[in-house]
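This entry is set out below.
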Amino acid sequence: MATTQTTKRRTAATKRSTTAKKAAGTHARASVASNAGRAKTNAKRRVSKPSSKQARPVIAQAEYVGAAVGNIVQSGVAAGSKAAAAVTKRIADLV
């Protein structure tokens, strides 16, 4: 059986441990709240002003799409020119 001094020592250690755990929990909750607020602010900042790293792929993609559209238009113009030349040749052959 434990002595009175041992019991007192264990009780005091348990109280200290419980107090420390409560303090740690409070600190953790406070830091989680501040981190959540910070993350929310950063997300808003990212949405309102994209960084140059984020803008680069968008610019490159826009340039690629522009080049593809230009190629399609150019192909259409070339095909139209060939068709017009063929029609002109047939008309000339008929006359």
The mean pLDDT is 79.
